[in-house]
Design a protein that fits this description.
about 15% strand; Ubiquitin-like (UB roll); 3 domains; de novo design (two linked rop proteins); alpha/beta; binds iron/sulfur cluster; 18 helices; five-stranded mixed beta sheet; about 40% helix; Rossmann fold; binds flavin mononucleotide
Length: about 450
Amino acid sequence: MGYPHPSHPRETPVLSKYFGDAEARTLAGWRARGGYEALEKALGMDPVDVQNVVKDSGLRGRGGAGFPTGLKWSFMKPDGKQHYILCNADESEPGTFKDREIMRWTPHGLVEGVALAAHAIYADTAYIYIRGEFTEPYERVTAAVREATAAGILGDNAMGTGRKLVVHVHKGAGAYICGEETALMNSLEGKRGNPRIKPPFPAVAGLWAKPTTINNVETLTAAPYIVKNGADWYKAFGRPDNPKSTGTKLFSVCGNIARPGNYEVAMGFPFKDFLWELCGGPLPGRAIKACIPGGSSVPILTAEECETAIMDYEGFVAAGTMLGSGGVIVFDDQQCMVRQIARLARFYAHESCAQCSQCREGTAWTTKILERIRDGEGVAQDLDTLLAIADGMTGKTICVLSDSCATPVVSGLKKFRHEFEAKIRPDRARVTMQGIPVLPPLGVTALKPVAA
Ligand SMILES: Cc1cc2nc3c(=O)[nH]c(=O)nc-3n(C[C@H](O)[C@H](O)[C@H](O)COP(=O)(O)O)c2cc1C
Ligand code: SF4
């Protein structure tokens, strides 16, 4: 197989089983591998029963927030209104590239999941919103929708059941914020991709103000396996003592690591074994210094914390971080954490939609301060100022992009403060134009003196 790395014996390939298998991309190849059997089964079930199987399985959203999928589907009632299912394929979180591989290698698996979810939420129309830069995934998914429609799997009489299931594929224009669910809906409606204030939530008023369910690519692709094999089969993957995290999870691994790529493991896998055994550990002569395990928006772990963390929702929370999107970014001992965190801040500043002043100003201000510390121009107040800005950016905005920028700053300062302090000039204080030293922001303590 041509996939970048052969499956490791300790992986549990369910969604990734056919990565690298070009035949699985075609309708004939997908059907030969059992494809569309789950959709056929689901179409013969009452939508509530489909919702219940997914609820019982414990599947949680793989887009970052981990919301229970069956519960989300159960918000949709047979009210006779137009409903929509949206597939979030905007995957732009730094370090995350698992949805891309699902779409490249098993596009029919995604289309099957989207159609199954449409049935479960009483929708007849689905949209797959694909990141603007994803040229090949867009082509693969579009081809799969065309093939499935031509074969009567989708269309006005899906699989001969009399049920209408129409799937549209839409390409974004390359904006990270359009991955936020309400920004995605605005973008799909032809508006600027700004997040909306909630409530109303999408299940009440989503796309074109109609009840809408939105799910990530990986979430939707997992659903047919659950319907086909049953909730108990899915629940069996995971820690027996943790029923809150079930199934398998795709992790994308990048940065300073010997074998980067996508890996699928059962929930509850030891992070130490994952990094050092499956991914081959650091590059020769280097040591792992830190890691962000769930995309760039979650707190940073030190190498010591990585050695004891457990890879599921609760395990990562216990370690002081989050599972997020499953994008693992590894930093080795050659990396300057100030530089790395400044890079992330610049990303968020660039991608902020600028509706909220805390985010618009906070991401820009954070970037400016971090970059001056990185360049050796930091002053004594900067670390306290960074923390005060981060506080103002957390939990106060329309969406969590603002919080996402603050998170690596706060955890980076907590765990790698010495690297910041080593770069600032304790002998210098920021002064006003009149030459008066600028005091630290109200409510924060002054920076402790550091050794010269
Ligand atoms: C700034 C921002 C960007 C996001 N980007 C994505 C994304 O690229 N893909 C995704 O599935 N979810 C993304 N999300 C989360 C979505 O808003 C939403 O929670 C998710 O699509 C729900 O699907 P799930 O329940 O299957 O996880 C993002 C959220 C925020 C705040
Ligand atoms: S937090 Fe930032 S990205 Fe989110 S809505 Fe406000 S300004 Fe836009």
